[in-house]
TrEMBL record:
Top-level taxon of the source organism: Bacteria
Family: Belongs to the elongation factor P family.
Protein name: Elongation factor P
Upper classification of the organism: Bacteria, Bacillati, Bacillota, Bacilli, Bacillales
GO cellular component, one term: cytosol
Major localization listed first in the record, in broad terms: cytoplasm
Chain's gene name: efp
Organism for this UniProt entry: Paenibacillus oceani
């Protein structure tokens, strides 16, 4: 058990039978009444984000999730296969469990599989990935005050807003948290 007073970003907890990671928290001490902790939690089983308020000093269960380095091998229909880098065991995950992550996965990429008591909850991507531009509109000069962007399609199918100087064939650094352009690779 862990006290809500000890919350920190990234902590995994078990509340009402579900596994959550703490995204944000705030200790509140009102002038009248008892102190409480307002938190923003992400459900690791279904990806939903919820806001929850706990009384100060309340205890919640600590969830010890396991992260294993694995390599993405290939997609076969609606299933995606990963291989453990140490034991060479392979696991298969359905595409429905990897909806957002598929925008960034490339073959032979090393990622982290998150599991809890043998149940695979999902994958953790690196903070940014290098992706190649396969389709891009030509940049039109003029009529731009500042920061003009255009649409570019990446090799994984992800559409990203990029600066006008980006061309087809360029390799870009894309943030996996929000899917936005960071820089050229």
């Amino acid at each position: 058990m862990i006290s809500v007073n000890d919350f920190r970003t990234g902590l995994t907890i078990e509340v009402d039978g579900d596994i959550f990671t703490v995204l944000d928290f705030q200790h509140v001490k009102p002038g009248k009444g008892a102190a409480f902790v307002r938190s923003k939690l992400k459900n690791l089983r279904n990806g939903n984000t919820v806001e929850r308020t706990f009384r100060a000093g309340e205890d919640v269960g600590r969830a010890h999730v396991e992260n294993r380095a694995m390599q993405y091998l290939y997609a076969s229909g609606q299933e995606h296969t990963f291989m453990d880098n140490e034991t060479y065991d392979q696991i298969t995950l359905p595409a429905s469990q990897l909806e957002w992550e598929l925008n960034f996965l490339k073959e032979n990429m090393t990622i982290s599989i998150v599991s809890y008591h043998g149940e695979i909850l999902g994958i953790n991507l690196p903070n940014s990935v290098e992706l190649k531009v396969v389709e891009s509109e030509p940049g039109i000069k003029g009529n731009t005050a500042q920061g003009a962007t255009k649409n570019a399609k990446m090799e994984t199918g992800l559409n990203v807003q990029v600066p006008l100087f980006i061309n087809e064939g360029d390799v870009l650094l894309i943030g996996t948290g929000d899917g936005k352009y960071i820089s050229r690779a």
